[in-house]
Amino acid sequence: MLSRRLALLALAALPASCASPNPTLYVLGIEPGPIHSAAPRVIQMRAIAVAHYLERSQIVRSSEGYRMDVLSNEWWGEPLDTMIGRILVQELNERLPGSTVYGESGAISTPPDATVEINLQRFDLNREGAVLLNAQVAVDGRTLASRGVTFTVRPADGTTAAMVAAMSMATAQLADVIAGMLAGR
Predict the structure, then answer these.
(1) pTM for the full model?
(2) If I label 96, which of 24, 76, 177, 181 is the partner at 20 to 30 A Cα–Cα?
């Protein structure tokens, strides 16, 4: 009887000992940039279209060499498209002090003077180990403008934290381009 109880206790403890650790969660940071004037007064950031391979909780380290390298226990703290939209709204508000920038999915429903649309096509490490951000941007305001952009930022080291910091810098470079487009530069 005692050995049966010990066996049951051992079986009950087995799943707890096999449980994987909680994932480490990361978020992009807000980076400063140049201030622009003469942008439209009210700007709406539309939902960002993200390449489907990036639509996952786990951080995609690279998509080079016909394969994806996904970090199994290092995840984004929120969906990537939502996070990039949130960060860009904050960075654009800082770069365009005479404007109000808000996200399409938020509670604000004021008619915008301009809209921003982004297709994020790539956002991971390239063959050289630098973060590669490749996107298409369209701004509809005083004039209609669209362009493709590519940024590379080398992480300080091989850690995931350094990669996310480099991704934050690349996102800030994207905000700089968008702010310039909105200001007519």
Answers:
(1) 0.87
(2) 76
